[in-house]
Amino acid sequence: MTVLASPSGILARAQERANDIIKHAEHQAALIITRARVEAESERGLIRERAWALARIEADAEVIRQEKNKQRGRK
Fold it and tell me: Is the whole model's pTM more than 0.70, yes or no?
C-alpha cells in the first residue's frame, strides 16, 4: 500500500531543499569572491614590485647619465 505524502509535507521538503540550494550558492559565491580578492591582491603586489624595480632602473640610469656627463665635461 502506497502512502501519499501530504501537500504540506511536500511543500516543507521543497522549501528545505530550496534553502539548502540557496545556502550552497551563497557559499560558492563567497568562495569565488574570496578567490578573486586574493588574486587581485596578488596582482597589485606584482604591480608594486614591478613599479619599484622600474624606479630603481630609472634611478640607476640617471646616475649613469650623470657620470657620463661628468666624464664628458673633464675631457
Answer: no
Q: What is the tens place of the pLDDT at every residue in 22-37?
A: 999 999 999 999 999 9
d(CA 71, CA 49): 33
For the chain, the straight-line distance linking the first and the last C-alpha, in angstroms and rounded, comes to 112
The per-residue b/e assignment along 41-54, b for 16 or more CB within 10 angstroms, e otherwise, is: eeeeeeeeeeeeee
User: Whole-angstrom Cα distance, residue 5 to residue 11?
Assistant: 10
**In degrees rounded to 5, what are phi and psi of residue 5?**
-80, 145
